[in-house]
Amino acid sequence: MKVFVKKLIAVLALAPGLVFAAEGGFALDRAPERNDLASLQNGAKIFVNYCLNCHSASAMRYNRLRDLGLSEDQIKNNLLFSADKVGAMMTTAMRPDDAKAWFGAVPPDLSVIARAKASPGGTGADYLYTYLRTFYKDDTRPTGWNNMVVPNVAMPHAMWQQQGIRAAKFADQPDPHEAGKMVHTFTGFELVEPGTMSLQEFDTATADLVAYLAWMAEPAQNTRKRLGVVVLIFLSIFAFLAWRLNESYWKQVK
Amino acid sequence: MGAFEETQLPSTASRPEKALAWVDDRFPLSKMWKEQWGSYYAPKNFNVWYLFGSLSMLVLVLQIVTGIFLTMHYKPDAALAFGSVEYIMREVPWGWLVRYMHSTGASAFFIVVYLHMTRALMYGSYRKPRELIWLFGFAIFLCLMAEAFFGYLLPWGQMSYWGAQVIVNLFGAIPVIGGDLSEWIRGDYVVSDATLNRFFAFHVIALPLVLLGLVAAHLIALHEVGSNNPDGIEVKDNMGPDGNPIDAVPSHPYYTTKDLFGVSVFLLLFSAVVFFAPEMGGYFLEYNNFLPADSMKTPAHIAPTWYFTPFYSVLRATTADFMYVVMAAVALYVVFVWLKSRLAYRIKVAIAVLGIVLIVGMLPQVLDAKFWGVVLFGSSVMILAFMPWLDHSPARSLRYRPSWHSYLYVVFGLVFVTLGYLGTQLPTAAYTIISQVCTLAYFSFFLLMPWWSTMGTFKPLPTRLTFTPH
Predict the structure, then answer these.
(1) Are A247 and A212 found together in one domain?
(2) Residues of chain A numbered 204-233 and touching chain B (CB < 8 Å)
């Protein structure tokens, strides 16, 4: 009992500090809003070229890309890599057993990945936008790549030719929470070998890809919001009429 | 019983009138309508708190109707379930809308039911002669929790899977039979296809049937004794010359129109969530549940959906250290009952024996904290059922009770919300201590109610309802 009371007092005094100490991990960048059709189409192109070789999007049909302003022929001629029919699902040719042997893990299905990766630290898009831009060269890893958001990730940097090869700089800095202790802290990236894109171009391309992933996680979302406006207007009128009807009856009650 | 006699209507009567007379001779249609709603006289001073009963009915209907359409496309199969939900979201025309209405409806159900229960607590609606209404309502609440729990497994996401695993494992804490019992519930050694199939059966048929029966009983009991009101006095004490209470109005049209207005405002808020924030920041649809269930990957943070978290916090608060506090609390309570209560000597002895058994059972050598966590978790829900017998206040409504009673209810509300918030968070040392304090406060509120509810200066009860005409 005494211990409990002591703990209680200590906790109440320290509570605010402890709450913030619970947060952790690599701070997420905010994914830029790129919801125009051109960006989404570019994102779709990057997706089928660079992601769909290993990852599937098994809930997504190729011809749903028509919602992004593409015609069936455009889809068939430019984007149909892993299937023969535009009505097919976005599957992958890589077998799960091979994936396990090559990478140590089966690449997750990406249909709803942008919804799954949301957290109090940021939206799923923020997570993906940060993750895809923080790969760095690390020769201690089997693939030669490591990542700031997911340390020791099994996935190699799929777009290294575009971003170029970067190394991460770490330095031992004094621990702000404990005097006399040093912590291994990330201080920034260093470009080892430039890629085919400038870093700004790469950020924009990643933003397009992430916008596409966010759209693919819920293709109905634009319809949903458009319809929502109509529904709310209708219900506002209904609520007004219901209110007046109610008032006209209750006027009689003295 | 007299011979059957067909009602004779004048030849000028319209066809619908004749049809109704024909039915009424064979089935009490008009009679039921009059008794249950049309001529059911309800106190005229109902405020906004009285909308949540009819809103619960509305949400129940919404859940049943959207549920029927979801079952048409959903596959209760571990290999197909997750994909079939995405199929509904993408391929089924309007599937996304039906699914969002159902997922938002689950949370909306708990919101309106919690508010409905708050109303009952504020105005003493559970007091004599309305004990059975309260008990039926309590059973509905239990059923609703089971319904939500079973339904949450169906999308077969990570949180579905591990949430079910955690809750079913709670039964494993029961001594001797625990392990076998949780295996029997799952139908397998882990949550699996067998579990999914039986949870589906419970969710779509067993519990909805019980729920509907209980709702009928709840309403019949209510319309038998009549509604309470914000003043907590009986309107039947002031009868008018027409044989109806002076301070009451027929539900139709007065409460039909009021409820219609309530429904319209509710639907506005409901639609705002469905169309613009169906995930509600991860509270209505948890982010982790967009990952398919994986029995090999335990998520770092397993949290039940928000409506269970107050009770879940009580479970998590029960650590081995905390058991000593609980033992001390039980001992104090027994002493308190002996000194302060006017209960019969035999009952006091029974309480003392029970107290000693509990304290011995709580020793770490006897039963571990996990078991008592489950007991406290269950008790935190079950204790609500005893409200009609715990509250001894001379006035039903908080309006005529000492002001500090109202403050106490506010503190209780804050304790409940705090427990709820903590249940959604990862446990830290600080959070555990706060949830332990809240757990003690939660149980004290109920267990000490027979005493504190009679204390203080009560305000005089009015003889007629307080009502301001529109």
Answers:
(1) no
(2) 217-220, 224-225, 227-229, 231-232
